[in-house]
Amino acid sequence: MSHQRRNAKRRPRAPVFAALGDETRLSLVAKLCGGQPYSISQLTQGSKLTRQAITKHLRVLECVGIVHSVRTGRESLFEFDRQPIEEIREYLDFVSQQWDQTLSRLKLFVED
């Protein structure tokens, strides 16, 4: 197992899962993952939520590293950072491999 994989397994993942466990935050991630930075005003358009509510959700995503803000004049632009999502994907791949191995051992046991 690579050094990077071992480190990824040791990082806390629950905060990222918790941040993604909200429909509003998932929709914000979906908008931002296209690569274009968005202002709070742009992210609020078409939503029934206030700017303050969107800001609160963005701060949760920012705390776990999924988004980051860049100051442009008087405005903050939010951008997607794929690293935490990649780490979660690697972790889920690892868990999936463990399940596959466990199921293979069970199959061998049952067939013997």
Neighbour order of strands in the largest sheet: 1-3-2
How much strand?
A: 5-15%
Mean pLDDT: 88
Low-confidence stretches: 1-9
- Beta strands, count: 3
* Helix-strand pattern: HHHEHHEEH
Helix percent band: 55-70%
Shape, per Cα inertia axes: elongated
For the record, give the distance between the C-alpha atoms at the N and C termini, rounded to a whole number. 30 Å
- CATH homologous superfamily title: Winged helix-like DNA-binding domain superfamily/Winged helix DNA-binding domain
Number of domains: 1
**CATH fold assignment:** Arc Repressor Mutant, subunit A
- Computed over alpha carbons, the radius of gyration is 19 Å
Helix count?
A: 6
Strand count, sense and closure of the main sheet?
3 strands, antiparallel
Q: Strand pairing plus helix content: what structural class?
A: alpha+beta
CATH C-level category: Mainly Alpha
Task: Describe the protein's architecture and organization.
The chain has 112 residues and is of the alpha+beta class. The protein has one domain: Winged helix-like DNA-binding domain superfamily/Winged helix DNA-binding domain (Arc Repressor Mutant, subunit A). It has helices at residues 3-10, 14-20, 23-32, 40-44, 51-63, 83-111; strands at residues 38-39, 67-72, 75-80. The protein has a three-stranded antiparallel beta sheet with strand order 1-3-2.
